[in-house]
Amino acid sequence: CDDTCKDPSSWETEFPRCGGLHQSPINIVTRKVHVTNNLPPLIFIGYTDIINITVENKGHSAHFALPPSVRLTGGALPGYYRAAQFHFHWGGKGRPGSEHTIDGERFPMELHIVHIKEPYSSLAEAQHDRAGIALLAFLFEETTDNHPHLDTVIAALGLVQNNGSATVIPNFRLSDIIPPASDLHHYYRYVGSMTTPGCEHAVAWTVFHRTLSISSRQLDAIVKQCRFWTGLPMTDIYRPTQPLDDRIVYSTNSGTTPKSVIHLWNSFCLAVLLTSALTQ
Ligand SMILES: *[C@@H]1O[C@H](CO)[C@@H](O)[C@H](O)[C@H]1NC(C)=O
Ligand SMILES: [Zn+2]
């Protein structure tokens, strides 16, 4: 097993970037985000296609592989991105396990959909581009009702309990587990890193304002499905929040964040900053 399995505080001995600046995840302080009109909606391509996906227990997390027909653009991203995989971060029984926190609040679970910029074909190639990877993050909120499509995912996790085991979910649709695109116009954007080694500093992060629902029954089921490579229960799989350093978190204008008046000149400056941050 690689160092992903060790305690996050020891990652940097083998992966120096993990101890560097501009790491992820972060705590988003809504009072301090820069509200901008320059974050248009993302454009989801192939998200409604019916696909067969392979789920594999990677020893530290379970990855759901996505075909390259699932793509992403828009949202002020510099180009088109191809989906690679999605995975979840969770806590333990009764313990929340999201990676990003909002005003210090940790959510029960977080979904990450990883996309690699075209024409790169791997994380290794994309990591040299500051926006080589586009990561979509969805925070889950505990509800009394079940998430209607999450049981497929839970059942699949039950079939990949041990490191290296894999299964296929037939007839899966990504759009079944996330809200419709029309509900995803509002999000936070910042530039950061992968949250596992090597902590590649190449990620344009999108954290949606809209949360996903999960019942306590589903949450309990998820956290007890898998085991780490060590054989211990796979719980609390999230990296602690990292310092913001000199970064700015941008947000689309919506009711859930404080609205601030932005003059035309300010918007122009933000657009320039954002574009340069993403294309450096
Ligand atoms: C999914 O797998 C089934 C069974 O192997 C196959 O019949 C079907 O064509 C596959 N669907 C897609 C979209 O690839
Ligand atoms: Zn992740």
Provide a compact summary of the structure.
By secondary structure, this protein is α+β, with helices and mostly antiparallel strands.
Structure overview:
The chain has 280 residues and is of the alpha+beta class. The chain has one domain (3-254): Carbonic Anhydrase II. The chain has helices at residues 11-14, 123-126, 150-158, 174-177, 216-223, 264-279, and strands spanning 27-28, 34-36, 42-45, 51-57, 62-65, 71-74, 81-90, 101-102, 105-106, 109-117, 133-143, 166-172, 187-192, 203-208, 212-215, 250-252. The strands form two sheets. Strands 2, 3, 4, 5, 6, 7, 10, 11, 12, 13, 14, 15 and 16 form a 13-stranded mixed β-sheet that branches. Strands 1-8-9 form a three-stranded mixed β-sheet, with no helix packed on it. The two termini are 33 Å apart. Bound molecules: 2-acetamido-2-deoxy-beta-D-glucopyranose and zinc ion. The site of zinc ion has 4 residues, from strand 7.
Largest sheet: 13 strands, mixed
Q: What integer is the average pLDDT?
A: 90
Series of secondary-structure elements, N-terminal to C-terminal: HEEEEEEEEEEHEHEHEEEHEH
Work out the helicity level: 10-25%
Number of strands: 16
Decide which structural class fits the backbone: alpha+beta
What gyration radius follows from the Cα positions, in whole Å? Answer: 18 Å
Q: Would you identify the CATH H-level superfamily?
A: Alpha carbonic anhydrase
Number of domains: 1
Low-confidence stretches: 256-266
- The first-to-last residue Cα distance is 33 Å
What is the CATH architecture descriptor?
Answer: Roll
Count of helical stretches: 6
**Chemical compounds bound to the protein:** 2-acetamido-2-deoxy-beta-D-glucopyranose, zinc ion
- CATH topology term: Carbonic Anhydrase II
Quick one: overall form? globular
